[in-house]
Write a structure and sequence with these properties.
By secondary structure, this protein is of the alpha/beta class. The chain contains 16 helices and 11 strands. Keywords: ATP-binding, Ligase, Nucleotide-binding, Protein biosynthesis. This is Glutamyl-tRNA(Gln) amidotransferase subunit A.
């Protein structure tokens, strides 16, 4: 395969490398931003990572950063670095559609806290990325605006719900991206595109301005091509926010320092637990072999590797698919055709109830309707205790499994997802097969723990990327970065360079 990274253009640099060149005055933010806009124009017609590209706004923001830098005002280490923003976070200067016809063309009146912090740090927002409608899906095939394609193989999915963000990274359309993770929507796309995705501790990054799917599970987080880049972005977006009642009022864990320490390649004193329940039947053999090789590499770095049992993790998937749809049923009730968004059938002859029904029928796609109906049923009189109540009890048991495990080890590891990227259309008619993509990622969401996916090689069956999932206790996000960075350096050395350099060359449109 021809390396996309050949030639060393601005679009193939890491965010840290771009930041260093900007700080040294070797390049301007306008030049870096224009290079990425050119790359988007060349390859995004094939990839469809973006729903909206704000070229004028991005260049204006880059110009402001360059002027501030010339005046000695630098707002953050990432000032001037471009980023792709998942279209589920509100932006006052771009539409926020959540991949749905229900919000087509809607421009919010306020910025999400994540958006605001990015702007204040001087990060240049290139545009909004495609996603499964209202973040409901594992393949980005549920977008009302068409699927995003995986740059490793354009006939395959880039993961979901944040496939647009992961594909933008893998296609070198942006060095950084933001995703949101409800049941794996940052980590699973990271795994299948050979990129890094981090779900911070629940409450570690503000949800204010994040259009809610499942409020007790949703968590914004960083997406990048390297562990250090993810850490740099994590520090920009994290921290307490009084606008979010679930935001944790504690200092942000030292994730950048941990990533730099991990890059030294010494994991002596770190205890790593391999989750027994996440292996065996149902796991693609090539994924299993890549994971086992990664565990061996962690051991060679000095980590003590032990097997850990988390017996209730096997019940996490069914519990999640009761809790998340229940909260979705409640949250999506706000899309009622009365206040904002789509309105269908309002010809003056119909009642408000009829207009609401017609709008929701036209505006929501099949997967969103499926989850609303599941959730409404689980919350209904006579079934609440049997379904939603029982699922919350399972959630408690999963949390206890994590607590017991972290008394024995510092981090837990597993494959991020049981298979490599599947073909577009392969699972659309089989919701259960689709849901299994999140088998390994869901427990961390139920418990609120921190978790990361880092590339761990290519499957020897199909040559597609495999992800290593690392899980840490709440507010111990720095452990992810130390272990992830140490593994990344060792893997790159063993495999002849970064995995992302092997992405097939995309032809310009």
């Amino acid at each position: 395969m021809t390396s996309t990274a050949s030639g060393g253009s601005l679009t193939t640099l890491t965010a840290a490398e771009i930041a260093a060149r900007l700080q040294a005055g070797e390049v301007s933010s306008v030049e870096v931003t224009q290079a990425h806009l050119d790359r988007i124009a060349a390859v995004d017609p094939a990839v469809h990572a973006f729903l909206h590209v704000d070229a004028d706004g991005a260049l204006a923001a880059a110009q402001r950063v360059d002027e501030d830098r010339a005046a000695g005002r630098v707002s953050s280490p990432l000032a001037g670095v471009p980023l792709a923003l998942k279209d589920v976070l509100t932006t006052t200067d771009m539409p926020t559609t959540c991949g749905s016809k229900m919000l087509e063309g809607w421009v919010p009146p306020y910025d999400a806290t994540v958006t605001r912090r990015l702007r204040e740090a001087g990060v240049v927002i290139l545009g909004k990325t495609n996603m499964d409608e209202f973040a409901m899906g594992s393949s980005t095939e549920n977008s009302a605006y068409g699927p995003t394609r995986n740059p490793w193989d354009l006939e395959r999915i880039p993961g979901g719900s944040g496939g647009g963000s992961s594909a933008a990274l893998a296609a070198f359309e942006a060095p950084l991206a933001i995703g949101t993770d409800t049941g794996g929507s940052i980590r699973q796309p990271g795994a299948v595109t050979g990129t890094v995705g981090v779900k911070p501790t629940y409450g570690g990054v503000s949800r204010y301005g994040l259009v809610a799917f499942s409020s007790s599970l949703d968590q914004p987080g960083p997406c990048a091509r390297t562990v250090l880049d993810a850490a740099l972005l994590h520090e920009v977006i994290a921290g307490h926010d009084p606008m979010d009642s679930t935001s944790i009022a504690q200092p942000v864990p030292p994730v950048v320092a941990a990533a730099r320490e991990g890059a030294e390649g010494d994991l002596r004193g770190v205890r790593v637990g391999v989750v027994r329940e996440f292996s065996g039947e149902g796991y693609q053999p090539g994924v299993q072999r890549a994971f086992e090789a990664a565990v061996q590499q962690l051991s060679e770095l000095g980590a003590e590797v032990v097997e850990v049992s988390c017996p209730h993790f096997t019940y996490a998937l069914p519990a999640y698919y009761l809790i998340a749809p229940s909260e979705c049923s409640s949250n999506l009730a706000r899309f009622d055709a009365m206040r904002y968004g789509l309105r269908v059938g309002d010809d003056g002859t119909r009642s408000a109830e009829e207009v609401m029904s017609l709008t929701r029928e036209a505006g929501f796609g099949p997967e969103v309707k499926r989850r609303i109906m599941l959730g409404t049923y689980a919350l209904s009189a006579g079934y609440y205790d049997a379904y939603y109540g029982q699922a919350q009890k399972v959630r408690t048991l999963v949390t206890r499994d994590f607590t017991a495990a972290f008394e024995q080890v510092d981090v837990l590891v597993s494959p991020t997802t049981p298979t490599t990227a599947f073909r577009i259309g392969e699972r659309v008619d089989d919701p259960m097969a689709m849901y299994l993509a999140d088998l390994c990622t869901i427990p961390a969401n139920l418990a609120g723990n921190a978790a990361m996916s880092v590339p761990c090689g290519l499957s020897d069956e199909d040559g597609l990327p495999v992800g290593l999932q690392i899980m840490a206790p709440a507010m111990a996000d720095d452990r992810l970065y130390r272990v992830g960075a140490a593994y990344e350096v060792a893997r790159n050395a063993a495999q002849g360079g970064p995995l992302i350099d092997r992405v097939p060359q995309l032809e310009a449109a």
